[in-house]
Amino acid sequence: MATKANPVQFIQQVRSEVAKIVWPSRREVTLTTIMVFIMAALTATFFFLVDSLIRFGLTHLLTMFS
């Protein structure tokens, strides 16, 4: 059974935990954002190429048996 917490103590604990947060710098955020866009572009290109290859193979396979 949970005991009822003191609201003042709760606020103090929250402030204590918030003080432990280390926020990233503007440079870190910018570099991380750029890396996410680069990885998304690479992933999209990879799946486009794989999809094109599969479509090409299936098209030729189906025209062979038609």
Q: How would you portray this structure in words?
A:
The chain contains two helices and no strands. 79% of the residues lie in helices and 0% in strands. It has 66 residues and is mainly α. It is elongated, with a radius of gyration of 27 Å. The longest helix is centred in the last third of the chain and has 39 residues, at 26-64. It starts with 6 loop residues before the first helix and ends with a helix. The protein has a domain at 24-66.
Summarize the structure.
With 66 residues, the chain is mostly helical. The protein contains 2 helices and no strands.
Strand content bin: under 5%
- Count of helical stretches: 2
Largest sheet: none
C-alpha Rg (nearest Å):
27 Å
What structural class results from the helix and strand content?
mainly alpha
Overall, the morphology is elongated
How far is it from the N-terminal to the C-terminal residue, by CA? 72 Å
Order of helices and strands: HH
The overall pLDDT, averaged over residues, is 93
Helix content, binned percent: over 70%
Features:
66 residues, mainly alpha, elongated
